[in-house]
Design brief:
The complex is a heterodimer of chains A (115) and B (113). Chain A is mostly beta strands. Chain A contains no helices and 11 strands. The chains are: A mainly beta (115), B mainly beta (113).
Chain lengths: 115, 113
C-alpha cells in the first residue's frame, strides 16, 4: 500500500478481554516499530522488529503484551486480559531498514478504549 | 536510561510570532536527532533531522533546528508561525546501538489567527 495501515482504527473492549491490533507496513520496509501514545506521556517504545525477529522486547509493559511479525510484513500486537490503563493510541511505524538515517513512516494508529 | 526532554507541553502563540520549542537529549554517542509533527487528524510526519555537518538544520514549512552539543539540545524554531502550524511536535533521538527511536512527551502548539 501507499502508507502504513493499521486496523482497527478504534477498538472498545471490556476489561479482561483480549485484543489484537494489526499493522501493515509499507511494502519492502524491513524495520517495524510499535509505540503507545498516551495523553501527556509522549510516544512510549514498545517493540521493534527487523524482518520477523524482535531483537528488543524491553519496552513491552508486561507479559500481557506480545507481538509477532510474519513474512517480514504484517505485525500484530496482542494484549491479553486488558486493563483500563492499557487505554491509549497504539502507533505502528515502519522504515526501509534499521539505520540512523531512516525516517519513520507512521500509521494513523488504533485508539484502544478499555471500559 | 536514554531520554528526550521537551520542556514546553503547551504553547499558545499569535500568528506571526516567533517560535522556539526546547528539546534536550541524553545519549552521549553518535547523534541522530529528529523533529516530528502531528497535525490534527493526521499521521506523525518528519519535520527535519540531524546527523552531522552544519548544526543548523532546515526542514519543511520554514522550520529549522539548531544542534548544540555542549547543551545536549536540539531546539526547533520558526521565525513567524501561521495558524496552520497548530499541531503537536515531538523531538526524537535514534540510538544506533539499540535501533530505538526515543521520543519526547511532545509539545502542543496552538496558533491563534
Amino acid at each position: 500500500g501507499a502508507g502504513v495501515s493499521q486496523s482497527p482504527s478504534n477498538k472498545v473492549t471490556e476489561k479482561g478481554k483480549d485484543v489484537e491490533l494489526r499493522c501493515d507496513p509499507i511494502s519492502g520496509h524491513t524495520a517495524l516499530y510499535w509505540y503507545r501514545q498516551s495523553l501527556g506521556q509522549g510516544l512510549e517504545f514498545l517493540i521493534y522488529f527487523q524482518g520477523n525477529s524482535a531483537p528488543d522486547k524491553s519496552g513491552l509493559p508486561s507479559d500481557r503484551f506480545s507481538a509477532e511479525r510474519t513474512g517480514g510484513s504484517v505485525s500484530t500486537l496482542t494484549i491479553q486480559r486488558t486493563q483500563q490503563e492499557d487505554s491509549a493510541v497504539y502507533l505502528c511505524a515502519s522504515s526501509p531498514g534499521a539505520g540512523f538515517n531512516e525516517k519513520l513512516f507512521f500509521g494513523s494508529g488504533t485508539q484502544l478504549s478499555v471500559l | 536510561a536514554q531520554s528526550v526532554s521537551q520542556h514546553n507541553h503547551h504553547v499558545i502563540l499569535s500568528e506571526a510570532a516567533s517560535l522556539e520549542l526546547g528539546c534536550n537529549y541524553s545519549y552521549g554517542g553518535t547523534v541522530n536527532l529528529f523533529w516530528y509533527v502531528q497535525y490534527p487528524g493526521q499521521h506523525l510526519q518528519l519535520l527535519l533531522k540531524y546527523f552531522s555537518g552544519d548544526p543548523l538544520v532546515k526542514g519543511i514549512k520554514g522550520f529549522e533546528a539548531e544542534f548544540i552539543k555542549s547543551k545536549f539540545s536540539f531546539n526547533l524554531r520558526k521565525p513567524s508561525v501561521q495558524w496552520s502550524d497548530t499541531a503537536e511536535y515531538f523531538c526524537a533521538e535514534y540510538n544506533p546501538g539499540t535501533y530505538k527511536y526515543i521520543f519526547g512527551t511532545g509539545t502542543r502548539l496552538k496558533v491563534l489567527a
